[in-house]
Amino acid sequence: MIIIVMGVSGSGKSTVGRLLADKTGWRFIEGDHYHPAENRAKMAEAEPLNDQDRQPWLASLANLIDRQLQMDRSAVLSCSALKQVYRDQLMRSPEAVQFVYLEGSYELILARLKQRPDHFMRVELLQSQFDDLEPPSNALTLPIDQPADTIADQIMKHMQLAPGRAETEVLLEQLMFPEAPRWRDNQLWFTDQHARQVVRVNLQGESHVVAELDDLPGGLGWLPDGRLLVVSMTKRRILALSDHKLALYADLYELASFHCNDLLVDPLGRCYAGNFGYDLHGGEAQAPAELILVNRDAKPQLAAEQLIFPNGSALSQDGKTLLVAETFASRITAFTVSTDGSLTQRRLWADLNGAYPDGIALDSQQNLWVAAPNRSRLLLVKEGGEIVREVMPVGDPYACMVGGAENDTLFITSSETDNPEEARRLRSGRIETLKL
Which has the closest alpha carbon to 387: 397, 377, 400? Predict the structure, then answer.
């Protein structure tokens, strides 16, 4: 089920929606975040949106609703949905989508808007919202002159919703696109890719920016001497952090077909780096890519070819098997690691039957946690492909890492989108945790 909390700006849609999502354990989606930049600019200039302006926004929300329903995933969406024609565009069926209308007077809502001057919706636009408003006849209508928590409870009671709790806990949010989680020194390290930062966060949710790049940061790892390595994606390099400065460690440009991606550094200091193989976001046709080995002398060489978007990697406990997620081939591929770091005996470790593996992490039993963003789930997979557990986080998961003080926590990087422009605008990235 999708519940759309609607009303004019300032009626409390987001506050009530978040409370309702917390009470049900469902995903909360802030509809305003999906306005294109042009709409936000118009509203910031106190220029009302017309029906044509709202069409791309409504289309994005309709696609988002469809995806949630296809994933059999309930959510709460805050969206003004002022006109019936807008609501018709968002309605899939009365059973699947239900509206809640937050009703309040112009005077009350005007007073609220004046208390939040930093909002992109200007006070001068409130009258235009009331002019456009067509109060729904088929929605649960609730007055806003009462506490938001009371309104959320009334929705729960009227719609006979059971209290619930998400399986995961949110440790950190408001990130652009977190990736490459690594557990080290009792903290989680990760890259916020479109913010171009390397970040670490402790278990209390206190974060610190470790380094900033002039490029998109990809995978992370540490050399035996303690230096942090980070992939510079579009420049196709690996950088090393020393004395708070990043410097070139290895140049992969001649070997990588396109942007570099994730990184695994083994205990001996050998690195394995994948790459896209083609311009994914530019719409190019899919093409195979390489896995590159960087030996301890920092010299790169090809380790494997003809991989379909080699992404997250994991090394077995004994160091003899390297697992690689081939994202758009929907499979985990295994290699035997030779004493010199070269890879042999390529074989299928698990067919994921349409789930796209992104980041991966082995647990203590040598089963593999797989972040599958196209399924909005984390899968715990045995060799051979048997799925022994599925977890649905708050956002779509892109990577994961087993860590914590007792190695009993799964850390998950999640987001609503991997589109660069949307990620920067929405800041919907999170670090989530799951107790194992």
Answer: 377
Q: How far apart are the first and last CA of the chain?
A: 28
pLDDT in tens, 75-119: 999 999 999 999 999 998 888 999 999 999 999 988 888 887 665
Q: How far apart are CA 359 and CA 399, in angstroms?
A: 4
Helix axes 37-44, 51-70, angle to 10 degrees: 130
* 141 within 8 A of 135, measured Cβ to Cβ: yes
Contacts 24+ apart (CB under 8 A), 378-381: 378/410, 378/412, 378/434, 379/352, 379/355, 381/332, 381/350, 381/352
- Strands 169-175 and 140-143 come out as unpaired
For residue 266, count CB atoms less than 10 angstroms from its CB and return exposed for 0-12, middle for 13-18, buried for 19 or more: middle
Q: Could you tell me the pTM of the whole model?
A: 0.84
Distance (Å, whole) CA 325 – CA 255: 19
Q: Give the whole-angstrom CA distance, residue 363 versus residue 408.
A: 9
Label residues 156-171 b or e (16+ Cβ within 10 Å = b).
beeeebeeeebebebb
